[in-house]
Amino acid sequence: MTTSPLYVPPATESGAAEAAELVRQLAAEGHLSAEAAQHRGREIAGELAATGTYRQSAEELLLGSRIAWRNNPQCIGKFYWKGLEVRDCREAGGAGGDEGALFEALVEHLRLAWNGGKVRLLLSVFAPSEPDRPGPRVWNGQLIRYAGYRRDDGSVLGDPASVEFTEAVQRLGWRSRGTEYDVLPLVVQWPGREPRWFDLPPDAVPEVRISHPDHPWFERLGLRWHAFPTISDQILELGGLRYPLAPFSAWYTCTEIGARNLSDTNRYDKLPEVARGLGLDTSRDRTLWRDRALLELTAAVLHSYDRAGVSIIDHHFATKQFVRHEERERKSGRDCPADWSAIVPATSGSTTPVWQRRYEPTRARPNFAPHPAPWASGGAGD
Ligand code: ARG
Known about the structure:
Bound molecules: arginine
Number of strands: 16
Order of helices and strands: HHHEHEEEEHEEEEEEEEEHHHEHHE
Largest sheet: 4 strands, mixed
Mean pLDDT: 94
Number of helices: 10
Distance between the termini: 6 Å
Helix content: 25-40%
Low-confidence stretches: 1-5, 378-382
């Protein structure tokens, strides 16, 4: 078991300390009286000693998940941490391991998060790992992502970041449609069982076509992106428990799409096409054609999401909110763990208030921790 790529340690010795710490923290933040905290602490310790795990209350799950988000150093959107909604999916799929039921619960997550375009901050928490029984997981890094196909000449059709995953699902029998924006299937796996893949229904995958407010030709580039991200390869580490499937949806910041996904040279690499459309001289870097194309592409993303009525945030507003969050945290007597390179936006960094600030990427628990990729070692699950 311990060599399995799916194995995530459940409550251990340090698990008991983490559980006690969570209860202490909830009390310190005013959610439990000192007396209730003592009682709950003893109850958990007893359950852990008897079974090696314990069941968290709905409130522990909700409040603890919010703190996990607040503790995550990678996220610029933490201003909204108290607004996180948590769906309790711990029973989804039952004890027998029904992949189809898990898939349905994930589709439901996407529909709820989409919310007609007013994207919700939504975390769905599935069964935790228990002694000798890791919890279920998905292989996908995000629930909605586009396939990447390596061609014989080494170039890639679609998203180069997905090439390995795409090859893995093709080995499982999934057939590509061969377009630049093929939505990947979800690969669901219960411990000890073979992974199964499922195609997402189109209504669970809202997308936005990218057009530009001033350039009608822009739409003809055929660029698009999915409406919101849903991170699905992070383990929720909460109070000594590990939840290996805890997909997290939120709205986008425009730079993630315009200044990374569609423009990075090892992603969709669209700046040369955009620059040609804009009539820029691309023969030398010195003309700053990349910079100009990047700005127009990011403006197009913001415009298109707005026009489609889909929540999206710009990097100026996002960074201002982040600084307000830091100040609020300081007033509450807390530090704000952050990774500067993840907080500073991919463009115009120096025009935002986070540029001049310094951050400590301290890792506190509860938190989210990345999952190792399962397909590399075959993902047999036992
Ligand atoms: N950068 C990732 C992407 O482009 C998403 C990361 C999370 N972003 C967010 N706005 N919650 O898909």
